Amino acid sequence: MNYALVTGASGGIGYELAKLLAKDTHNLILVARNKNKLEEVKAELLKINEKIDVRFIPKDLSENNSAEFIKSEIDKQGLCVDTIINNAGFGDFGKYWETSFEKEAQMIRLNILTLTQITKLFLPDMIQRKSGKILNVASVAAFMPGSYMTVYYATKAFVLSYTEGLAGELRGTGVCVSALCPGPTKTDFENKASLDGSDLFKKMPVASAESVAKIGYKRLQKGKVITITGFINKLSVLSVRFAPRCLVRNLVRKIQKGSLK
Ligand SMILES: NC(=O)c1ccc[n+]([C@@H]2O[C@H](COP(=O)([O-])OP(=O)(O)OC[C@H]3O[C@@H](n4cnc5c(N)ncnc54)[C@H](OP(=O)(O)O)[C@@H]3O)[C@@H](O)[C@H]2O)c1
How far apart are CA 144 and CA 147, in angstroms? Predict the structure, then answer.
């Protein structure tokens, strides 16, 4: 039986992507830390489509070797993964010399290492079957440096570059990989990144997680390598391409600095 593996499926964009997969009668394996939330999400997904099988694996994906743990759990259950949604991720706001390095190390492990290793572990089977889809959730932050969220922006730049490089290697294999790049989106992200009430979320249009997921999902089906959601975000990314680099980093710095308490 084929399954879609969705990380960070207990809320926000990942939850909305899981709902779309359920509507399309896709079996699901949900991953996040909060077991109770995963149980609730499973019940909700089965209400959407009772024909699917939904399993979940509670796991902190910022732990070393968590990708190997997920792979071995899925192998033990004899499931075949044909779609991966690498969505789990978080950010942190503040002056770099004041923020927690432990939190940043967790962010790098979750946003970069686990995403990369999950793909590494499941990709060979997809290549052999000549089919598979991988969606990596990046951000518009991937296109620019972001003072006061310096490490987060850098992790998303990695996700975008990694996805584009891999997309080139996957040509003609039947497997596709896509980077979803949303701008500010109404989820728990803002609160968890200590950004609540920030200028970033006040000055930029904030999308719903549902609309972001819908666009990302549709473009994944079409095999598009990069998806930037929303008109203003597309415009920002376009202007970054033409504006001098120093102008871009100063502009982002100004927007972000307004959020300092
Ligand atoms: N919201 C935005 O403005 C925005 C903009 C651009 C990009 N993004 C990206 O979109 C993705 C999804 O974020 P979101 O906005 O939907 O945030 P969210 O509402 O905070 O959801 C994050 C999801 O990831 C899970 N998660 C967090 N840390 C985890 C860990 N260590 N191990 C396993 N699961 C973990 C959470 O569940 P548990 O807490 O139960 O583990 C939750 O299911 C992230 O990669 C984020 O960087 C968000």
Answer: 10
CA angle 69, 3, 134 (to 5 degrees): 80
pLDDT bracket for residue 256 (50, 70, 90): confident
Residues 6+ positions from 162 with CB-CB distance below 8 Å: 115, 116, 136
pTM of the model: 0.97
What the block records as the tokens of 184 is 């500010």
Residue 117 pLDDT class (50, 70, 90 cuts): very high
- CA–centroid distance, residue 255 to ligand 1 (Å): 22
Q: Where are the alpha helices (DSSP H) in 98-208?
A: 101-108, 115-129, 150-170, 189-192, 199-203
Q: Ligand 1 centroid to 243 CA: how many Å?
A: 30
pLDDT score at 261: 67
Would you say residue 178 has pLDDT above 90?
yes
Number of the ligand 1 atom closest to the C-alpha atom of 185: 3
Q: How far is the CA of 13 from the centre of ligand 1 (A)?
A: 7
User: In ligand 1, which atom is closest to the CA atom of 37?
Assistant: 40
pLDDT one-digit tens code per residue, 37-75: 999 999 999 999 999 999 999 999 999 999 999 999 999
Q: Is the pLDDT of residue 148 over 90?
A: yes
Classify domain 2-257 at the CATH topology level: Rossmann fold (3.40.50)
- 2 to each of 25, 29, 69, 80, 83, how far by Cα in Å? 11, 10, 19, 5, 8
As separate numbers, helices (DSSP H) first and strands (DSSP E) second, the chain gives 11, 9
- Domain ranges, ordered by start, for the chain: 2-257
Q: Chain centroid to CA 225: how far? A: 14
